[in-house]
Amino acid sequence: MPSLKTLIKNLGPGLLFASMAIGTSHLVLSTKAGAQYGWIMVIPIILANILKYPFFEFGIRYTTVTNTSLIEGYRNRGKAYLWIYAFITLVTTFTILAALYVVTSGLFINLFKVDDLSVGNVALGLFVFISAILIVGRYKFLELSLKFVVSILFLALMVTTILVIYKGQVEPSPQFNPMPIFDEVGILFLIGLVGWMPTAVEASSWISLWTLEKQKVTKRRLPLNEALQEFNSGYYMTALLAIFFWLLAG
């Protein structure tokens, strides 16, 4: 088994996955699940993370073994598979990016108290800024910056969750009633929660591409066990953070 030092050095695709997944599914859906539906919603959160794991893990396994991306694998199976994947990506990309930038812009406006800026303008500015960073710094800068950002987020959220549990729940409101799960609104919310938790399954191909970029930067092809351990560390962090967000609002 690789040492802790080796694991930290290998951090890359799993860390990127964690940072990518901690968005609408965690900040919005997990907190809403805890606040409006209570403890019962931890069950679909855990099940979604468990049942979707093989789809994402396959992206790492396939690329590490074959040294090719999943997208190349789709092409080798036939152009029809590639076109189907391209269509799904085209449809989901705009909705995913729109949701992420709206949520991020809202957080930015509230955090820095810039109420005179519109969500649209902030989203456009963030898009230009992030795109420029990725174009200039490419994968290496993205990975390096996320090591700090995700580590700080994880530690801060863990401390906050511990403090919330230690101090106990706030005094419950006598007028509050948990929303029903098995009505039209509840089922639609459950579908959205499971669909987005931790993220959409087509992200498996993104992990595959990140793995190849990691190999180019390090000029080293990781053994399968090390690659899987690195990805698992990021995936477990993602699942744990989803529960932390649920606890904070529950």
Fraction in helix: over 70%
Shape summary: globular
Report the strand count.
0
CA distance, first residue to last residue: 37 Å
SSE order, one letter for each helix or strand: HHHHHHHHHH
What characterizes the major β-sheet? none
Count of DSSP-assigned helices = 10
Uncertain segments: none
Report a brief summary of the structure:
The chain is mostly helical.
Walkthrough of the structure:
The chain is mainly α. Helix content is 80%, strand content 0%. It has 10 helices and no strands. Helix 3 (24-37) runs parallel beside helix 10 (224-249). The longest helix is centred in the middle third of the chain and has 49 residues, at 119-167.
Give a quick set of tags describing it:
250 residues; mainly alpha; 80% helix; globular
Lay out the secondary structure.
Blueprint: H1 4-10, H2 13-21, H3 24-37, H4 42-66, H5 70-77, H6 79-112, H7 119-167, H8 184-196, H9 204-218, H10 224-249
